[in-house]
């Protein structure tokens, strides 16, 4: 069974919410390019931003990271 990564979860959650990378970046106070590298799996957000992402999408840390 394939393990889903944070990058895929973030993109799926964002698209389900009909939100652009730019919109999510604005809410989080980061650049659109930052959201892009998260979704590509190149980098991951720090703990505080991850907590904010969980709050925005009403997800637990466990659900969004696995």
Protein topology:
Elements: H1 6-16, H2 21-28, H3 32-40, H4 47-57, H5 61-65
Give structural notes.
It is a single chain. The chain is an all-alpha fold. 67% of the residues lie in helices and 0% in strands. Helix 2 packs across helix 3. It is globular.
State the shape: globular
Using only C-alpha atoms, the radius of gyration works out to 11 Å
Biggest sheet statistics: none
Assembly state (oligomeric): single chain
* DSSP strand content: under 5%
Helical/strand content category = mainly alpha
Average of pLDDT: 93
Q: Output the number of helix runs.
A: 5
Span of the ends, CA to CA: 12 Å
What is the total tally of β strands? 0
Low-confidence stretches: none
* Helix proportion: 55-70%
**Secondary-structure element series:** HHHHH
Concise account of the structure shown:
With 66 residues, the chain is mainly alpha-helical. The chain contains 5 helices and no strands. The protein is globular.
Sum up the structure in keywords.
66 residues, mainly alpha, 5 helices, globular
């Amino acid at each position: 069974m394939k393990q889903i990564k944070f990058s895929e979860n973030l993109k799926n959650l964002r698209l389900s919410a009909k939100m652009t990378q730019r919109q999510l970046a604005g809410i989080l106070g980061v650049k659109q390019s930052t959201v892009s590298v998260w979704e590509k799996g190149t980098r991951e957000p720090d703990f505080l931003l991850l907590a904010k992402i969980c709050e925005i999408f009403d997800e637990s840390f466990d659900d969004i990271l696995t």
